[in-house]
Amino acid sequence: MNLCLILLGGGLGAVVRAAITDFVGLFQKSTYPIATIIVNIVGSNLIGLLSGVMITHTPIHALFIVGFLGGLTTFSTVQLDLVQMLHKRQYVQFLSYSLLQYIGCFVCCYIGAYIL
Known about the structure:
Number of strands: 0
Strand content: under 5%
Oligomer: single chain
Order of helices and strands: HHHHH
Distance between the termini: 30 Å
Helix content: over 70%
Number of helices: 5
Largest sheet: none
Radius of gyration: 15 Å
């Protein structure tokens, strides 16, 4: 049962991530991965917030936290973005993106976990 909920939530999260990426792309002039920053920071905050109020190993936890928010956020895309920035010798973008992703997501998760 939980695996089906994770599949459903993960699929929906991935679709929402793609929609946000497409929407941001309509207005963005640069190649800086703003959409990935948005989904990871918002997702990290929601994971922190919901983990404080949801009981783990329940169907709702599987659907929303493991599934939807796991599908929304993306670690592998961040790694690929960083490799591409280094390959293009975009060292300032590499550093700012690293800080935004790792420190920004941690801080947002922490705030979410302790906001209630």
